[in-house]
Amino acid sequence: MREGAFLVSCSSKDVEFGFAHLARAYGAERLADGAHAINIDGKRLHVLNEGMPINFRDGANSGPILTLLQAEMIAACGELVRGSLQPGIQAPPMEARAPILKAWMDFYINPATGWFRPMPDS
Asked: Is residue 68 within 8 Å of 104, Cβ to Cβ?
């Protein structure tokens, strides 16, 4: 992995990465609530939520809300790749989030009621 890489899981409830093993083998520095750094062979690796999926950190989200969260995670990854974020916990900038929210609302929300549209069964 590259220097400063982030190891983040966003999937099932199962433990995805062996954080406890990495912490025992290499030591872990707590950076903030839910964020640690581990130095492996001279490279710094950041691990979020101790290897557990971040989408279950504050309770599981599912259905239409999960699709919105996933889209924002993808936008956040794009910002990380572009190097446009400063250190710290952040969200993608509003100019990246606004079109995501608009597309999500156009697809899922009935403008007449403000509630979710009925979705056809798959």
From this structure: yes
